[in-house]
Amino acid sequence: MQVLIPFHKIIQGCLMRKRFCSFPFSVRLGVLKTALLTGLFAVTGSASLVFASDSDDYAVIRAAAEKGKAASIARLKEWIALPSIAAEDLNMPEGAEYMRKLALDAGFDAAEVVPTEGHPGVWATMDNGAERTLAVYFMYDVKQYDPAEWSSPPLAGKIIDKPGFGKAMVGRGAVNQKGPQAMLLAGLHAMKEAGVKPPVNLVLVAEGEEEIGSPHFKQIVSRPDIMAKLKESEGIFIPIGWQDDKGNVGVNLGAKGIVELELVASGESWGRGPEKDIHSSLKAMVDSPAWRLVQALQTLVTSDGNTPAIDGWFENVRPLTEREKELIGQAAASSDEATRKKLLGVQHWIDDLPYQQALERLASQPTVNIEGLVAGYTGPGGKTILPGRAVAKMDLRLVPNQTRAEAEAKLRAHLDERGFKDVEMKIGGGYDPTETAEDSRIIQAEMATYRRAGVNATLNPRLAGSWPGAMFTAPPLSLPAGQFGIGHGSGAHAPDEYFVVESTNPKVAGAVDAAMAFVDFFYQVAEIE
Amino acid sequence: MQVLIPFHKIIQGCLMRKRFCSFPFSVRLGVLKTALLTGLFAVTGSASLVFASDSDDYAVIRAAAEKGKAASIARLKEWIALPSIAAEDLNMPEGAEYMRKLALDAGFDAAEVVPTEGHPGVWATMDNGAERTLAVYFMYDVKQYDPAEWSSPPLAGKIIDKPGFGKAMVGRGAVNQKGPQAMLLAGLHAMKEAGVKPPVNLVLVAEGEEEIGSPHFKQIVSRPDIMAKLKESEGIFIPIGWQDDKGNVGVNLGAKGIVELELVASGESWGRGPEKDIHSSLKAMVDSPAWRLVQALQTLVTSDGNTPAIDGWFENVRPLTEREKELIGQAAASSDEATRKKLLGVQHWIDDLPYQQALERLASQPTVNIEGLVAGYTGPGGKTILPGRAVAKMDLRLVPNQTRAEAEAKLRAHLDERGFKDVEMKIGGGYDPTETAEDSRIIQAEMATYRRAGVNATLNPRLAGSWPGAMFTAPPLSLPAGQFGIGHGSGAHAPDEYFVVESTNPKVAGAVDAAMAFVDFFYQVAEIE
């Protein structure tokens, strides 16, 4: 998911979940072993370990999952070895075709590559003659990587020891999102092997441009037959594996929207300053696009850099509801602020806010962020040039009821109003904020599955990150949408990204439990009121 | 010279010289050939072709220069093959030792490597029993380069055709400054071969840190015996080869000073924001060092980015003198503004100034320039991070009577006053502005040599670029200092830097004429009143 720079974000996720942890966990290994036939984890104090599915079926499926474990881990390793990176136009048709085959192998009746004006997606269906249909969202692309920064080759899928967790596979895409997706496929392989049909019909929609902001994903879901099938579903979810070391997970009821863009000041567009870099001594008689960019940028936020100052930016911002504040209040009260600060390398929140207010700000406030600055000479030391071009890489995070289109239009108008018509906005991608109701069947099924597995799941009113959920939650689809899964990985977008395949932590799922959680989730969606 | 991004700057130089071009040039090749024995160029209309030196000696020296031409070109090629780059700590002791040997080979009696706290310099002396001593400044370092941007390998010294000029050697350092320096050495080799002692004593001081702002050069010139010898001299000069296609040159009476520095905002120094890059979604609760930098930067200049707004910046700025304005007025009147704009890729000067005012601004105004911006993610596309660190690479050009120390102190005070104590100033190097009197013996000798060679030389009140001339012109040395030489090269700091070794342009010197110009300059310095 583009949402996550895994390392930091997952830390954030872990800590957010940690602070929701409200009931005591005490796991004994003996109990766990026994429990493996009936539940994902046996947790003393957990009242509901009865499966929605027929327990014989479930035991057979679990046995198949155990048997298929090595194949499932090999499947993930092979997938990691084929990186599709839209930003680099790397292995895009290959990645789509691979995704299609993965779906067919896992038991989908039909799977096809869906062309777009950008890179293709994949659409797959599995009609199990069930009453309900569940939709799954996959991404087959991964983030760029620099092998020099990795401890082992990013495409090798090396298995390493991850103290506190167990054995983990290291590779680009391991947690974002091939690992969790491979676990869902493993669950389907196990059902196929066991000869048990999933209790829901499944449809799978995959894209290869998630890491560049899903610029053509709408073309995929808008295809009439795809849209019709999606509309029939109970909702859609992304497989995740974000348990923290206590086994906790969060259930997000929504996420911020985002616009990723470059603001570019250049002599070419401005008609002032040089078209290309010239010698810096000429600054005394020639205008500077770099200063132009700085001057345009500083109008976008308050002087502390923390609040958007773009004209009309807050017009449609909806304040937190009482329920949202309540959930955040619980979070603040039960979590360890000092540890979170330490892990983030942050000494103060904005305005020295107390933690609860900082978390309210995190959930409720739109942001205007500088991801990167690039102008002129960027190497070691200096070089006496007056750059012809300067770029700020930005992301704008949006909250309900802002929209991406509104944000783009308002930023343009703001710049124009101040005479910065020449400062170009190069939109990379983005999506609207997304929200899913707490009482939707998919959220309720998630909570039930976690509960039955003894996993502490806490409701998070809004992910401060972003994912293209609005594609599903907004009209015309208007579907509930969420993330679901157990297991653990980290390092999305960072070096040494990993996903745990053998857990030595009784509270964290390994490959088989992670796969079985998806199986149980299917039953929950099928059977929940 | 750090002064020059050759391509643009030399273009600028060419044009500046062109506009001074006031008397008709008409050169016939037959005349030129004949003239080679008595002068550098025979120019009809030039009244003084009588040499200060004995003409027999001169003919013998010239014959030796012709004979040594191939060796002189080979010497340049070999020197280019050994790049010394202080910023990369590349071949620094090797470059100094090579410089030392070059001096000895050319006839210096003594030459030694002079250690500093940084990279070493070289000091060489040649006592010719003459009344007067002339000091020469060399740099043995070159600017960084990226071979991928070059048409031929930057260390290969390939000879190519340069239409309008002749055959040129392509290589890093070709014009900045190894080519012109090699021509001076060639002149000395010719005198040695001819058995003629230079009519002046020579001292040579070389450094290897010119391209990083000469941070340790003062340690070299401050050595008591070196300072004593330099003080005895008539003045000091840098060899150059900046003739334009009409053969014109400029004589600079001074140059701006410079401070090169990085301004760095970071979570580490600020105590706010993250220590390292974190996920951009956290912007809603975490401060941003990148915004911090933008806010600090925008206080440094007026809103158009063109005038320094640092507290007290103009306190010691001396306005142009009437004589300086007069020289600039002549320049503006006689030059081709449209061509210059086109070559620079600039449509308007600052404030749409007319050319003369733009040139006055160029000569008279201090600048605060952004050389480069670097923060967070700088690759293709975007990456959703909140960077822990942001850097602006800056250069501040200074005019008389500003000083580097004053500029550094005022910038620090300005930032502190506005609460930006955390924004670090990492000084790369710099030097004070420099001025040399028009009536100094060295400037008069330059003008006389150019005149006798039929080269149109025009007085430029102040180079907008910078060179460490103040090291010489300011106390305790208080020497006149200038640039001198003919020949042509371009592309300093840029790909495909070159220096003409065989001229097919009768107005531009090739290797032999360039060498002989230095020989004649020695005579002028020896004999001028």
From TrEMBL, chains A, B:
Keywords: Hydrolase, Metal-binding, Protease
Positions of the Peptidase M20 dimerisation domain: 274-420
One of the protein's GO biological processes: proteolysis
Pfam families membership: M20_dimer (PF07687), Peptidase_M20 (PF01546)
Domain of life assignment: Bacteria
GO molecular function, one term: metal ion binding
The protein, known as: Peptidase M20
